[in-house]
């Protein structure tokens, strides 16, 4: 029997249960005329001594012909009785987010997310989820756009219908320029009802989970990239809208540890269709940054297309007499889908790479000047000779119209040649070939790369504040 047939049989069964309740209630509300022979004084007896001519009801109370007892006319089915019987609705989400801040290019990104649930029982399910984001850079020459894609799934269950537990795992890949960088992550989530409100906790670890060496050492030396988020949801008025406040702490490893925080709010319509979001956060890569945006959620049942019906339906509502955690079973996983470029590159590199960082935070370069910065940890020349590419990323793009330039040197000030950083670029890639072999430890005196020199073109009118600069040899 197909899915559509099962849904029709289920719907007919529910209608059959609800119909008597509806008819009786309508009859009472409309005051339908009753026969004089059904008057209470004749059927149930009265204070005047009338006879009880009603059919025998051995399960009812004395003097009652109704199986539900005195004063009861029908058995009405509530939402709580049907909860867990109706199938979960797959969730399709579209959104747009706009990022801006002290050390970020003001830019927007479109995203889409699809979560497909498979019920194991009334309160447990497994799910598959696909997420993608597209970000366009109109004024850069290093790469014209960025694409992030994630594929995975997990397991969620309701415990006594007031607590949700879940685990998940994802494969992540990002395209920066023409290069794809892959990694992954695992997560754990828990949520609980507190009266008509709800709290949720989410933990995610990111790294090379598809590399057995990293997995075996991940918890021995501590996770390199992770975040922890706590949220509190409150029903503003009876039946919504729903306000969720959140606070996130995170740590990324890009050669050295980068710690940050993020806090924000989400306002959701009671049916879960519309969501407005605002975030503000801070870390060494992005400095202080803000994000505003919105999302639209719809139910998307692909099997309806096979029957010539629209696949779009209403999503799982947030409030079901009153709030229901069942809504959270089909919501997108709360994790960082769009990590900074420096983190993506360093994370994808894994153990078969060498990473170095130069933190220029708070030190800007005026036009026609070159500033000298120290590596957070000197990089041994001998450790990079076998690699073929070096990718350098900047938190802030080089200014227009002249861009900038960069070189690195050893502790004895043996220099590599300057490499141009085009206007608007947030990353450059250097190949291990003449004249750039010195960037790979060849032909220099000394033992480590200890300093970086970064220049701002004389043709620029604005200062350049590169922020955290990351070097990844692969």
CATH class of the largest domain: Mainly Beta
State the major sheet.
Answer: 12 strands, antiparallel, barrel
State the order of secondary-structure elements, H for helix, E for strand.
HHHEEEEEEEHEEEEEHEHEEEEEEEE
Tally of distinct domains? 2
Helix content: 10-25%
Terminal Cα span: 54 Å
Number of helices: 6
Explain what this protein looks like in three dimensions.
The protein has 474 residues and is mainly beta. The protein has two domains: 88-339, Inverse autotransporter, beta-domain (Porin); 353-473, Jelly Rolls, CATH 2.60.120. 12% of the residues lie in helices and 44% in strands. The model is unreliable at 6-12, 14-61, 63-85, 138-143 and 216-223 (pLDDT under 50).
What secondary-structure arrangement, pairings included, does this model have?
Layout: H1 3-30, H2 40-43, H3 79-82, E1 91-101, E2 107-121, E3 124-136, E4 145-159, E5 163-176, E6 179-194, E7 197-207, H4 212-218, E8 225-235, E9 242-253, E10 257-268, E11 274-283, E12 287-300, H5 303-306, E13 312-313, H6 341-349, E14 354-359, E15 369-380, E16 389-394, E17 404-410, E18 419-421, E19 427-431, E20 448-456, E21 468-473
Antiparallel strand pairs: 1-2, 1-12, 2-3, 3-4, 4-5, 5-6, 6-7, 7-8, 8-9, 9-10, 10-11, 11-12, 12-13, 14-21, 15-20, 16-19, 16-21, 17-18, 17-20
Notable characteristics:
474 residues, Porin, four-stranded antiparallel sheet, 12% helix, elongated
Can you describe this structure in just a few lines?
The protein has two domains: 88-339, Porin, CATH 2.40.160; 353-473, Sandwich (Jelly Rolls).
């Amino acid at each position: 029997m197909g899915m559509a047939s099962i849904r029709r049989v289920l719907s007919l069964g529910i209608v059959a249960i609800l119909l008597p309740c509806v008819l009786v209630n309508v009859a009472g509300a409309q005051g339908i005329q009753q026969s004089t022979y059904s008057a209470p004084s004749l059927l149930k007896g009265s204070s005047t001594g009338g006879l009880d001519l009603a059919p025998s009801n051995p399960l009812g109370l004395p003097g009652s012909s109704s199986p539900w007892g005195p004063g009861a006319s029908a058995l009405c089915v509530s939402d709580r009785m049907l909860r867990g019987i109706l199938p979960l609705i797959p969730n399709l989400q579209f959104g747009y987010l706009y990022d801006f801040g002290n050390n970020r290019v003001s830019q927007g990104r479109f995203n889409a997310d699809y979560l497909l649930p498979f019920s194991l029982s009334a309160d447990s399910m497994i799910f598959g989820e696909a997420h993608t984001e597209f970000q366009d850079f109109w004024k850069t020459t290093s790469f014209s756009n960025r694409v992030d894609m994630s594929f995975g799934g997990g397991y969620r269950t309701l415990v006594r219908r007031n607590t949700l537990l879940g685990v998940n795992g994802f494969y992540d890949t990002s395209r920066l320029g023409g290069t794809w960088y892959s990694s992954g992550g695992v997560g754990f989530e828990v949520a609980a009802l507190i009266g008509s409100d709800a709290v949720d906790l989410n933990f995610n670890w990111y790294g090379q989970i598809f590399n057995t060496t990293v997995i075996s050492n991940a918890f021995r030396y501590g996770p390199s990239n992770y975040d922890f988020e706590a949220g509190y949801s409150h029903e503003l008025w009876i039946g919504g809208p729903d306000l969720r406040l959140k606070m996130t702490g995170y740590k990324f490893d890009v050669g050295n540890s980068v710690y940050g925080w993020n806090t924000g709010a989400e306002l959701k319509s009671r049916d879960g269709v519309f969501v407005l979001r605002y975030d503000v956060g801070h870390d060494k890569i992005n400095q202080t940054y803000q994000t505003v945006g919105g999302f639209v959620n719809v139910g998307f049942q692909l099997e309806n297309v096979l029957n010539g019906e629209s696949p779009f339906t209403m999503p799982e509502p947030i409030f079901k007499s009153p709030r229901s955690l069942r809504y959270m079973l089909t919501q997108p996983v709360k994790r960082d889908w769009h990590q900074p470029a420096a983190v993506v590159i360093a994370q994808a590199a894994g153990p078969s790479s060498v990473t170095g960082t130069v933190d220029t935070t708070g030190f800007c370069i005026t036009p026609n000047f070159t500033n000298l910065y120290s590596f957070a940890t000197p990089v041994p020349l001998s450790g990079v000779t076998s690699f073929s590419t070096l990718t350098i990323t900047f938190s802030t793009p080089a200014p227009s119209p002249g861009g900038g330039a960069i070189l690195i040197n050893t502790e004895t000030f043996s220099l590599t040649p300057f490499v141009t950083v085009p206007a608007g670029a947030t990353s450059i890639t250097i190949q291990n070939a003449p004249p750039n072999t010195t960037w790979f430890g060849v032909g220099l005196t000394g033992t480590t790369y200890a300093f970086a020199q970064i220049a701002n073109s004389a043709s620029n009118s604005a200062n350049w504040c590169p922020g955290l600069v990351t070097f990844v040899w692969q």
